[in-house]
Amino acid sequence: MDIRKEEKSITGLLSDLTRDITTLFRQEIRLVKTEMSEKVEKAESGLTMLVVGGAVAYAGFLMLLLAAILGLSLYVDPWVAALIVAVVILVVGLIMLGKGKSSLKARNLMPEKTVESLQRDRSLAQKHTAASH
User: pTM of the prediction?
Assistant: First the structure.
């Protein structure tokens, strides 16, 4: 009879353990979901601030260009002042585009250290394979 009680208590303990682990796992999943939704909300808020800040900075940049045109128009005709500012901004933009394009070439994005490490690992594995045969 004692054996029966022990079996029931072990079975009961295992059942309790399984239930507790399941409950703990579900609570952890809920915690992760809650925490991730909070992080997403913060990220959305930060992204909104970045977009609004970028728009405001862009408006300020346009005003600076307008001020440059108006200041330059004191010395030349307004249309010439606008043309000069536009050409300068266009050249700066094209230079930035060229540098951005060159930095995105495939060879610049290659994980060189990882490739070198993988090649070393492969050659080591080949040496060990050759030595064991």
Answer: 0.53
